[in-house]
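ugh ok fine here u go
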Amino acid sequence: MARETLPPVTTLRPAVFLDRDGTINEQMGYINHISRFHLLPGVVEAIRRLNEANIPVVVVTNQSGLARGYFPEELLAAVHEEMERLLAEHEAHVDGIYICPHHPEAKKEKYRLDCNCRKPKTGLFVRAAEEMGLDLARSFVVGDRWSDLKSAKACGATPVLVLTGYGRGDAQYIGPGQEVQPAFVGADLAEAVQWILGSVTK
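structure:
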């Protein structure tokens, strides 16, 4: 009797999900021109450390400025190309970029919907996990807003707050009244990654 061939066993990997504005680059409100995109200090090195540890790095970002008509799709693509270029200059990279372009008050009808991907909803995280073979329960979500932390909690990941961008103000004025609290608060992405690397190796 021929032996049945079983499918190969695949292991889901933990990942680090990063918010963009205020976590990776300076918080400017809306990046409505390429000249307004500036990486925060220490970000390149932090992402490179995750790359060296073979931990997938996934950017998950709300971009309602696109829906509101503040900038075109071409600019959003150019900003992400610039981000990847700056990272590549120092041998760092992100493994995926997931964008929510929706908003209830969107000017363009195609963006005007009640989506499941706008943080703190979990649609982008679930999609990334399915497409990239990621284990959300063993992953980390890093951001400067409580919406990032709520997303982490909702999808079973570990929430991490950085005090860059809106982080310091959110920590002082919004955080104390929230049910969801960060597992770690870092001064910046570099400090957050240091803690994450210590956590995943335990």
